Amino acid sequence: MLSFSSVQTARPPATTPLIPVDGSWLKPEGRQHSGSVKYRMVYAKLRAAIAAQHIGAGTVLTEVTSGSTGVALAMLGRSLGLRVVLHAYTSIDPAKRARIAELDALLLLHDPAQPVSDLLAEVAANVARGGHWHLNQYDRRSTRLAWHEMAGEIVRQVRAAGAPPPRVFPCPVGTGGLIQGVGSVLRREFPGIRVVAVEPEPGAAIDGMRNTAEHFMGRSDPYDPAFPDERIVVPAPRERATVDGERLGWSATAVVELARARGWRDAVIVAPD
Prior knowledge:
This protein is an alpha/beta fold. It contains eight helices and twelve strands. The two termini are 33 Å apart.
């Protein structure tokens, strides 16, 4: 079996700064090793699985992904010398598709009309046959826990800056792990903070986000719609925002535009990529 130290051959997540923006804080996770905040979640789940001896030297790592999680898993899998098999829709971002290919992962593409539950069932069948380990970013409990280290980093940075406690945590909703994992810690450490779920308005497409009223997996969905204090839907941005010389992804742009429109101060915004 791989040992816990094996995952240390892969780079631990980078510590990203908090950048002051319009009286709030922005955490630019595009600076992460894989270019996305998902590197943190994948690293944490791999570390836990290796420590629990769920992953061996010949284990195949697998997941259903819209892009960023797949890039992170491919990167970490290669550093561990493990094969990675990913399932995605043909609509996957071309740049992320190319990056996955560069990292030598096998990417299986599916028709967008096929329900994600079908893709997950295919992964589960491979796991049941043996030799595969499912990252399972769709598991609510383990995925929430995987974000706690990042949340602690944010808390330490806010306090080290001597800043007032943040009052708002607006967060894009994708699978739902980020908002729930980080949001639960921020609620504990900064009582009174409002957790705001930011989703595309009906019919709008924003990379890395979903409208949970239109796209929800029922009981198996990793996201709990009752978790946030407020849900706000937004239009797709016309162009990506630039903050402090940092070009943000589409989901972060949508959140920054919302914060500016609402005049929020003392907010913490995680820019996923």
